[in-house]
Amino acid sequence: MNENFIKVKRNEGRENIPTAFIFSCPGQEEMKSGKLVNGQTGKNLDMMLEFLHNSRPDIFPSVDRYDYRITNSSEIVHFKAHDNRTEPKTSEICETDNIKRLCADISGFKYVITFGRCSAIASKVLTEQGLCADITFMYSQHLSFLSLNSSIKNDINGCPIERGSKDSTRKRLEVAAWKILEQL
Asked: What CATH number is associated with residue 109?
């Protein structure tokens, strides 16, 4: 892998938390701050963690995203103004050194939630290579507004969510949280 790329490394998280998260790749906000899952996606993750923590505090003992190990399917920063991409290529994700890094990042965790297509590809490669047999993977869509708004139309009671309403994001994140919990 070309070492000239801008990278943002994993968030370590606190000890004794059994759950880790894999997102796609760092973007502009992460490059500026040096912290993963920054900006609105991070705020949405915190909101989702409220639902997950209330339902399964044994698996989600904190509502603060930075208490968890957070990594990406690729450490390389991508955003439109930088390299005209917002996600890594599949070849970048599947590169041997990247898979080894990702395996090391999630080693020792019991549960790993993948957010979005790229992280799902990464977890599939890890599983196919027999590198994470002891990990329970759970899959979620990405937590961007675009992904949430396009894929979740009804709340947990089946009622339509009015786009742009005051609590529409919260309702969508509650649905996304329940989809994760159903995979346990």
From this structure: 3.40.470.10
User: Phi/psi at 92 (nearest 5 deg)?
Assistant: -65, -40
* Residue 52: inside a domain: yes
Walk along the chain (184 residues) and give the pLDDT tens digit of each residue: 444 577 888 989 999 999 999 999 998 889 899 899 988 999 999 999 999 999 999 999 999 999 999 999 999 989 888 889 989 999 999 999 999 999 999 999 999 999 999 999 999 999 999 988 899 999 999 999 999 999 999 999 999 999 888 899 999 999 999 999 999 9
Would 4 be classed as within a structural domain? no
Counted domains in the chain = 1
Q: pTM of the entire structure?
A: 0.93
* 9, part of any domain: no
Structural domain harbouring 34: 19-181
Task: Confirm whether 25 is domain-assigned.
Answer: yes
The pair of structure tokens assigned to 149 is: 């708004």
